[in-house]
Design brief:
There is one protein chain. The protein is α/β, with parallel strands linked by helices. The protein has a seven-stranded parallel β-sheet, sandwiched between helices. β5, α8 and β6 form a beta-alpha-beta unit. α2 crosses α3 and α2 packs antiparallel against α6. The protein binds guanosine-5'-triphosphate and magnesium ion. Guanosine-5'-triphosphate binds next to α4 and α5.
Length: 322
């Protein structure tokens, strides 16, 4: 390992909010100093309970997170929050809205709230979000909550990120509730019907209960039975029960070894993704210099060889040096 620790990393590890915020910005911007700091932070990660909150637009996720933060604070825990703004047509003022909704915690030193854009990446939750989670983890927050909107594949991304995934539903979705993707049903650890003060909450609860009965085992073979909770986030009703359920799930994961494994598998995927990107970049840089490649490109263009065969020919020749 190389010498001294990146100064900002040291400050972040000591819990300095300004340092953490700056690091997250570097990571978001792809500033190389961010990566250097992450190297120092990484050994300090792995302690926080990572909680993903996902659900359809307007389900009350931010309101729920705000209430959750209040309850966790009451229990003496420090909380980091990342609200992912999917930069979609749904969320005109999402960032401002999240800030406003969680504003009461702004002056609390035990709470860190940050909104992040997902950079228009299809499939949503950006690498920078995972990096930010690592920063908050290393800063010593006991809970790190990530709010994402359940559109497209976003919600499945959060599943790989969090220890505990909370799926937020609301009454009155009617048949649309059937549209909840099977994958989400399998992947949720805790199911919430928010806005339980609204008409139709009982019906939605019954529908979800039925779906949970039909649910097959978690892909990992985990035998956790996901609880289903009715919540009124605006009034804080059901929030203590939700925190109890989250704590229960965390101890379940600790007992089964899943706590380590979930973060580990996320890091594994991150590593493979970086390897794929880096390897492709390096190969392409080298390839552009080679006359043989230029000849193949020409052969493809003039239809003497099809693009699949041309690529296969070259890929078959790639070897890692021992
Ligand atoms: N009646 C009722 N309204 C609620 C409840 N929770 C949230 N709301 C309202 O629902 C609206 C949307 O709340 P948000 O917390 O912004 O929802 P969100 O899911 O974060 O929205 P996006 O991030 O834009 O997808 C707000 O007007 C909230 O006041 C609840 O329990 N009951
Ligand atoms: Mg929100």
């Amino acid at each position: 390992m190389s010498g001294a620790m990146q100064p900002l990393a040291a400050e972040a590890i000591a819990g300095k909010v300004a340092a953490g915020a700056r690091l997250i910005r570097w990571l978001e911007d792809g500033d190389p100093r961010g990566r250097a700091a992450l190297r120092d932070l990484y050994p300090h990660t792995g302690r926080a309970h990572l909680i993903g909150i996902t659900g359809p637009p307007g389900a009350g996720k931010s309101t729920l997170v705000d209430a959750l933060v209040a309850e966790e604070r009451q229990r003496g825990r420090r909380v980091g929050v990342i609200a992912v703004d999917p930069s979609s047509p749904f969320s005109g003022g999402a960032i401002l809205g999240d800030r406003l909704r969680m504003q009461r915690h702004a002056a609390d030193e035990g709470v860190f709230i940050r909104s992040m854009g997902s950079r228009g990446q299809l499939g949503g939750l950006s690498r920078a979000t995972f990096d930010a989670v690592l920063v908050l983890d290393a800063m010593g927050y006991d809970r790190v909550i990530v709010e994402t909107m359940g559109v497209g594949q976003d919600e499945l991304d959060i599943v790989g990120l969090a220890h505990s995934t909370v799926i937020v539903n609301v009454p009155g979705l009617g048949d649309e509730i059937q549209a909840i993707k099977a994958g989400l049903m399998e992947a949720g650890d805790i199911f919430v019907v928010n806005k339980a003060d609204r008409d139709g909450a009982d019906q939605t609860l019954r529908q979800l209960e039925l779906m949970l009965h039909l649910r097959t085992r978690h892909p990992s073979g985990d035998d956790w039975q996901p609880p289903l909770l009715a919540v009124v986030s605006t009034r804080g009703e059901g929030i203590a029960a939700l925190v109890d359920a989250l704590d229960h799930h965390a101890s379940h994961l600790h007992d089964s070894g899943g706590f380590e494994a979930r973060l580990g598998s996320r890091s594994h995927h991150l590593f493979l993704g970086l390897l794929r990107d880096g390897a492709a970049r390096r190969l392409m840089e080298q390839a552009l210099d080679q006359p043989e490649i230029a000849a193949l490109v020409e052969a493809v263009r003039s239809r003497r060889i099809d693009p699949y065969s041309a690529a296969d020919t070259l890929v078959a020749r790639i070897h890692l040096q021992p």
